[in-house]
Amino acid sequence: MTERTDIVRVRDGRGVLVLSILVLAALFLAPSLWVWSQALDLVRHPSSFDWKSNHDNHVRFAAVSAIVFGTPLTGAFLGGTVAGARGKHGGVGAATGAFLGALGLLLCGVVGFFWMLSGATFSF
Questions:
Q1: What average pLDDT score do residues 53-70 get?
Q2: 14-29 tens-digit pLDDT
Q3: Which is it for the CA torsion 77, 82, 87, 88, positive or negative?
Q4: Among residues 111, 41, 101, which one has the least CA distance to residue 75?
């Protein structure tokens, strides 16, 4: 085999790897996007009389948006930067960083959900 076909083969494998990691990141980000859509729904349907709750909904929506979109993007930036600093291909590092950001966001959501349920009291 020539050197050219070896390079093409490596790039093809890297593209499949990056795409696979990004698909997993999107799947792990889906519950966070659902929470974001719920916050967006509150902002889209404001109260006619209560300006304070409308303002609080906008502030919560801004915070949820920053967390949901900022965490994977920060992970992608840091992953690409670290991979570039180590002399590796930045695409795989960026995809891995986005995946780890989405995974961390999902784990924080699961822990928060169970923490919320631990304080709940049920009475029949």
A1: 91
A2: 888 888 999 999 999 9
A3: negative
A4: 101
